[in-house]
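FAQ: What does a multi-protein file look like?

Like this. Sequence, then tokens, then the next protein.
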Amino acid sequence: MTNKEKPVNIYTDGACSGNQSARNFGGWGAVLEYGEYKKENFGGEIDTTNNRMELTALAAALEMLNRENLFIRVFSDSSYLIRCMNEKWYVNWGKNGWKNSANKLVENRDLWERLLVHLPKHEFQFFLVKGHVDPKSPKTDTDSLYKKFTDKNGSGFSKEEFLYVIKMNNLADALANKGIDSVRK
């Protein structure tokens, strides 16, 4: 049985410097919160893609958990990740021999499989967050961003909670950049 009153919040981000070039550097970052407890993790890879780093961030975060039957809320700026989970693309992938709706092999299958093993172990909610938001910038319209966030994700978040989600997403982004730096050396 899951505890919805005390969820595990996971904030993830992936980054890739030179995403389409022959040689690039990728990084991923994840922040896990359970009540007052917080863990941060990051890593990096050479010759990867932004999408691979987005998926790796969540896989690494889920692999840090040492219990099952948790209520997990995932916050990511990756529409690739969030749409797949919310729209359950993976169900048809499995039925179609890991081919997508265009009848092509699903990219990043290894990472999707690494993630999907966790779905039956927990109860999940996935939320799409706008990345790279500086709420302190005079150019940032936080009211408009909050409305867009609640339009996409439901009205279950106060504006204060939304601003906190943005702060944690920015932390995950900073960790992903640390991951890039760790492999660039």
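And here is the next protein:
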Amino acid sequence: MNIIGGGKYMKLSKESITEIAIDLFLEKGYDNVTIQDICKKASITKPTFYSYIGSKDDLIIDLYDTSIKDILGDSYHFLTIESGYEQLVYIFSKLLKDTQKYGSDILSHMLTANLKEDRGSFELRKNLTDMSVVILAKAQKNGDILNQSDPVKLYTALAYLFSGYEMMWCIKDGQSEFSKDFFESFNLILQVKEEYKDIYHKYI
């Protein structure tokens, strides 16, 4: 079965319905979009919607998984970047850009949904964690970063540092200096070499 979205035909799936819904949320605001609006845009019925999606909140619960899939599939950047530190900057800059793309409105609702019931949106994803831990260990060995703490604990600290600044960005309705504030703290925790401290500007 095909649906019409953005002027093109797409195979009906949870992902295709979600893509249409996100576009509507960005255009009109999460609270201003109904399930009926999504069904109309996707040219499907409500029963069809519910056969793929449990609720409106389900459409925004797994946003990070799409970002992580893109990061893990982007081998080009990891082959062309020698510095482990810069590879880490690339990973977090990608997450940061996607957060800003979705906007504080959608991310605030994702946070609220998880406060009502832990939906796992902010849990660390094993595939990204494993890759980042390997990169951190390489950066420590090569002297890119001076913090020699356990790479697993170090990555966990960075991941939840990101979540903390993201939460404040949502509270401030997208008006805080998310990128600058996060990467300054990121550099402080990792204890990076002086010549690396401004590398993040290449990615944001």
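Q: Is there any per-entry metadata?
A: Some entries carry free-text notes. For the entry above: The chain has a mean pLDDT of 92.
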